[in-house]
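1st attempt posting a full record on here, be nice pls
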Amino acid sequence: MEDELQILVIDDDQVDRMSIHRSIRKAEIPASIDDAESIEHAWKCVFEKEYDCIFLDYRLPGGNGLELLREFRAKGLLMPVIVVTSQGDEGVAVEVMKLGGTDYLSKHSLKQEGVSQVLRNAIRAHKAERERLQTAEALKVSQARLAEAQRIA
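the predicted structure (as tokens):
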């Protein structure tokens, strides 16, 4: 992760946003971090810029983070999303994963080690998935070329 990561923190609580900022800085992860305090502001951010990772609060004014995560995935936005919540509920964690979230982090774990480890894992997993998709696409192209060559021969 040598390049500066583009990170979006979607949370209506300034203290929680600052905790995530501080944890990323203390972990010495090179990152440019943007904030969104609402669902509307989050949409504006994701349409203006491509993010490497999003920290998404579970409870937001005008909706919840899971609804926003569902909408991101429905629109084909595949960046890693880490859902942050004050709820320590395993049911929420399961729902996050079902909706395509990358990880789940309790607000009580917003310490340097917790945030940096979850962020590093999310970026690593996203990179591996992106490489897998590129390999699958290259395989499709090769198979199509082979089929065409066999048809011509």
